[in-house]
Amino acid sequence: MIWLLAPVKSVRNHFLLLSTMLPLRFIEKVPDTFRCYRWIILLFVFFSGSYQTASAQCLTRGTGDMGLIIERATGSVQIVDTTAKTSLFRIGELGDLSHASAVFSRDERYAYIFGRDGGLSKIDLLCGRLVKRVVQAGNSIGGAISQDGTLVAVSNYTPGGVKVFAADSLALVADLPAVADDGKPSKVVGLVDAPGQQFVYTLYDAGEIRIADMSDPDKPDVQTFHNIGRLPYDALITPDGRFYIAGLFGEDGLALVDLWKPQGGAQRILDHYGNGREKLPVYKMPHLEGWAIAGHYAFLPAVGQHEVLVVDSQTWKEVGRIAVHGQPVFVVARPDGRQVWVNFAHPLNDTVQVIDTQSLKVIHSMRPGKGVLHMEFTPRGENVWLSVRDADQVQVYDTENFERVAQLQAEKPSGIFFTARAHRTGL
Amino acid sequence: MRQSHYKLFVFSMLASMAATAFAAPDAARQAELLYLLKHDCGSCHGMTRQGGLGPPLLPENLQERPTSLMVYTVLEGRPGTPMPPWRGELTEQEANWLVEAMRRGEGL
Q1: CA distance A340 to A375
Q2: Considering only alpha carbons, which residue of chain A is nearest residue B76?
């Protein structure tokens, strides 16, 4: 009996299960105790076997249908399964995750999380644990992973600049200060990866775009574009990695660099899109990193207006604008480009709208709850996951019929990031 | 007589200042204001108020700044920067309470 109580391997469990079910009359000298307790033994062995499976240290599975949810108030993340629509792990102690974002290693096993407090955390999705965490600056805003997956870059507010780390060890590889010609340090926004082992980023205070070529990590080659406009707040790169576009807060317009012809410099596009109309107070800065390029149109949030701008991505001229519920924060295309989903700034952040990219009309409005902060599509777009901050929920919707198909509990959820981002430039 | 008038004037001034300073929003509204401070102000100033696109709002950062100026900034915003005016969402009294709450480091 004693050895039955010891931890047993599952093969042995199966043997024991079978043996307890054997008709006892074929076995000679069966102790009476075994006869009496065989059902108890059966149950014990069965449950000890299933307990062992559930407490396994690491999962053995692919990660292509996994992702993570940032729980910003508690400094934790949940690792989720987008097929089963369930939570697998929660990892805490990740510092201040207000405005946190994440990128994934190209094998989709690890996530790199960029926290507001300058923390860079590497997380193992299969084992549900923190692998390493470095606090690399006082205050940071986002990051990117290089084309070949070996470098992780973090953009910082305090002190401004970009730091580049080895993706495997998180050892510092390069420090790229963001000091303008006048000697003042600048906050860095809109950091993305680009083909050619480049990182592209924007200096908020200085109004500059910079391209850092990290082909030789010991000798970063940084190219600067001056006078791109006032207070660039965020930027995006088109999915093909060709155009880098920075949104301006201080002016009506955007700055564009063609990375295939960088010698052409930064051009102004959509100049004066507000037509001199007074901007509404902006209670939340729009984001550009969740790009929305659908077909030959790009969809962009209009700063301080209740509008989504529609731009021809060949000519970069405005082709229309779509009146929406509030000031857009994220304007993101479903992976097939047929729909664009929009969420809104405080105090209208209880609503999400869906734009049909053929008719350029709002085809659906819904109110998931107050504080819809982020939207993330499953890799081929059949579902969208929404974080609803004030309800402490992540809601999952079918993107064809807009029905809610699942719901997960999360503490003040903000960003949602799925592993499919690993294979997309700029995400 | 003149002196007693003067005393009355000083007393009423102090009383009205005290009324302004202590007329706090009720408990439910205070909780709403702290939530707003954490989550909405926090999107630029950081949820732990250590700063971000906007400056840090920790007690040590606010020591030198006059309350009236901060209340004005909260209500009217700062043109030329992303700081929006919160008038319409907040009364002067509420803005005043929020500024004092930030000074005390409340909710950190």
Answers
A1: 11
A2: A281
